[in-house]
C-alpha cells in the first residue's frame, strides 16, 4: 500500500504539490493519475510545486522530465515551481539542468506562464 | 485494394480522423491525398484525430511526424489531438515524444491552436 500524490484542479490548471520524498510506485501512480486527469479535465497545463523538497536528485529530476514529456504529448504545458536556491545550485552542480522542463519561481508565476503559453503557442520544440 | 483514410474539410482546416490501424499503403495514400488537399484547398492547418487509436507505436509516431513535416513545408500547421493517457505514457516510456509534432487535448483546442498560429506566426524553425 502506498500513498498517492494528490492532483488538485484550479480553474483549468492541475496542481501537483509534492510534499514528501517519493518512492518508485508513487511516481508511477502519479504519472498515471496525472495523465488521466489531464484528459478528463481538459486541462490547460500542469503546475508541479516542489517547495517542500529539500533535495532534488537525478531520480526526481527524471520524474519531472517524464511528467513534462507526457503532458506535452497530450498537448498540455508543465511548469515546475517553488525550487529552493540550494536545490537549484545542487542541480546545476550535478549537471541536471532539467532539459525540457519549464520552471517559474512561484505558483502564481507558473500559472501565469501557462496562461500565456496557451494564448501564444510556442515554436515546435 | 486498400481503404483510404478520409480527409474532411472544416472551414479552412483539414481533419483527418484515424479510425483503424494503418497499413503501409494507407499511410502513403494518406500523405499523398493530404498534401494534394492542402494545396487544392489552401488550408490553414491540419488536425489529425487519434482518439480511436489504442496503441501508437514507432510506425504511427513516424507517420505523424512525416505528415507534420510535409504540411509544414507546404506552409500549413499540423496538430495531433485525442491522444489517450495510456498512449502518452507509453510513447514517453519508449522515448518517442513526437518531436516536431504539435498536440492538443481535443479537436476543439486543436482547431483553436491552428487559428492562433495563423494569427501569430512563430519564429523560423
From TrEMBL, chains A, B:
<dbReference type="InterPro" id="IPR051932">
    <property type="entry name" value="Bact_StressResp_Reg"/>
</dbReference>
<dbReference type="InterPro" id="IPR002645">
    <property type="entry name" value="STAS_dom"/>
</dbReference>
<dbReference type="InterPro" id="IPR036513">
    <property type="entry name" value="STAS_dom_sf"/>
</dbReference>
<dbReference type="Pfam" id="PF01740">
    <property type="entry name" value="STAS"/>
</dbReference>
<protein>
    <submittedName>
        <fullName>STAS domain-containing protein</fullName>
    </submittedName>
</protein>
<feature type="domain" description="STAS">
    <location>
        <begin position="3"/>
        <end position="114"/>
    </location>
</feature>
